[in-house]
Amino acid sequence: MRTNSSNRRNGWYVDDIGVFSYTIPTNILNDGEPVYEFSLEQNYPNPFNPSTKIKFTIPTVIANETKQSQLVILKVYDVLGSEIATLVNEEKPAGSYEVEFDATGLSSGIYFYRLQAGSFIETKKLILMK
Q1: What is the residue range of 68's domain?
Q2: Which of 29, 76, 105, 110 is deepest in the core (most CB within 10 A)?
Q3: Phi first, then psi: what are they for 109, rounded to 5°?
Q4: Cβ atoms of residues 93 and 69 within 8 Å
Q5: What integer best gives the mean pLDDT of the chain?
């Protein structure tokens, strides 16, 4: 949702059609923008050789009135579904992250990367061209 006027730190904003809304931010990033949901971005560059960057965002999870970290797993697979690399496999607090995938030694072709965190699972395609 785009905003015309906002104060995201305090949770209020006015959307594109002038509707005033108030939300309780779940996380404040360094730039002051709250994180409300998971996201997995398309890698850049794509196609790539020999490395590419993958960005993802993890929202805040609150349990028992305490912010909780989540187990985050980011893996790369070939077209047959064989695991090629594990880029992330650890507890992470809410925030935005960027991971570099170095495909030196791999053949040109189509690969997939998959982010799993909590109940969120998303897969995207990347292309290695040598």
Answers
A1: 39-128
A2: 76
A3: 155, -170
A4: yes
A5: 79
